[in-house]
Every structure is written in C-alpha cells, then in structure tokens.
Design goal:
By secondary structure, the chain is mainly α. The protein has a single domain (about 1-215), classed as Glycerol uptake facilitator protein, CATH 1.20.1080. The chain has eight helices and no strands. Helix 1 (about 1-25) packs across helix 7.
Length: about 230
C-alpha cells in the first residue's frame, strides 16, 4: 500500500511538473524567464509539501537514482518509481499536445541546447552541474533534514535559480522526465541522450558525496534514526 501511494504521488507530481512547467514555456514569450523558472520551482515546492511524506516527492528519475546511490532509497522500489515518473512526464506533455496541437509555440517546452550560446559540451556541463546542485539540496535539505520544514522551498528554489541562470541555454531541465515528455510529444529525440547522461551524472556525483561525506559524518541519532540497542 505504501509503495502504491508513493507511485501515485510520483506520477501526479511529475505530470504536474511537465504540464505546468513545460506549459509555461509553451504559452509565455521567451523573455519571461522569471515566470517560467517560478512555474517549475513552485510545482516542485507544492508537491514536495503535498506528497513528501508519502514518496519523498522526487518527481525526477535522476534524483531517484541519486537517492539510491546515496543509500537513502531501496533499489527495487526505485525501479517502479522511475517508470511512473517517465509515464507522468510523457502524459503531461501529451496533455499539452492535446490542448495546443502540433503547431504549438516553443515546441511544447522541449529542452534543447541553444547552440548560439554554447556548445553541446557546454550544455552537458550546465545540466550536469545543475543536476548536482538539485540532488545535493534534496539529499541534504530534505532527506538529511538540514532544511527542516523549509526543505521543499529550498528544493524548489534550487530548480528556480538554475533556470534563471541557464534556462535560455538548456531549458534548465535537470530531469530526464522533463526532457523526455515533450520530446515524445514532438517526436524529436535529438539531444535526449545527452541530457539523460548529464542529469544522471550530476545526481550520481551528489549521491556519492552525500554517502561518503555528509551521511558518514552523522550518527544514527543525528539522522533521525533510533540507535540499535546492545544486547
């Protein structure tokens, strides 16, 4: 039952992220970066508050992988979570396609590297570094508890500031489901593999750092876990 609730929460949250985030990119002019950044960041914040206790509210396959690497998420449970995140992202984009049609502006919010501003490697590095920042905030502010009740806000604002910083260059996806959903709706899979590799790399590096530095330095009590009783 707990896994079923987690899967439903992850599906709804990821659907909402693409429907609202990519939807904002679709209907707003390109210079509305502040509104686009906030649309993404506030969705993350809202659903982290709504469903964080049920699923962790990762709504991002790369962040789920990061939590597995960090030792904070069971491997077997992560597989169905990642699947429903991708399904939520694809259906969120398909809903936008049904509403706005194939001629929708801004390619239904698909994230592509702006080669007028950087190279493919530059875009890769931006997505990898941004994904590292986002995973780092999730693991430390959220899972480790450093952010307290404001952890969802810290996580949402991390995505927001990354979109402020380089949204016009890569879209500031930081999320394989955010990348894939509009790609499927458009039938355009160019650069999807590059985004996936960058986002997963950033999440894995953050997970390893958390596991061997931050988590290792804390006692079970500090992690909010009961200390095993000696017999």
């Amino acid at each position: 039952m707990r896994l079923a609730k987690s899967l439903l929460a992850e599906f709804i949250g990821t659907f909402a992220l693409i429907f609202i985030g990519a939807g904002a990119v679709t209907v707003l002019p390109a210079h509305s970066i502040a509104a686009i950044a906030l649309a993404h960041g506030l969705v993350i914040t809202i659903f982290a508050y709504a469903y964080g206790k049920d699923s962790g509210s990762f709504i991002n396959p790369a962040m789920t992988i990061s939590a597995v690497v960090a030792g904070e998420h069971p491997v077997l449970d992560a597989i169905p979570v990642i699947i429903v995140q991708f399904i939520g992202g694809i259906l969120g984009a398909e809903a936008l396609l049904a509403i706005y049609g194939h001629g929708a502006p801004n390619q239904l919010g698909q994230t592509l590297i702006n080669l007028h501003q950087t190279t493919l490697m530059g875009g890769f590095l931006l997505e990898a570094i941004g994904s590292f920042f986002l995973a780092n905030t999730i693991l430390n502010a959220g899972i480790r508890g450093a952010g307290g009740n404001l952890a969802p806000l810290a996580i949402g604002m991390t995505l927001t500031v990354c979109i402020f910083a380089f949204g016009p260059v890569t879209g500031g996806s930081l999320n394989p489901a955010r990348t894939l959903g509009p790609a499927v709706a458009n039938g355009n899979y160019s650069e999807v593999d590059l985004y996936f590799a960058a986002q997963i790399l950033g999440g894995v590096v953050a997970g390893l750092l958390y596991r061997f530095v931050w988590k290792k330095s804390l006692s079970p009590v500090a992690l909010g876990r009961p200390v095993a009783q000696s017999s």
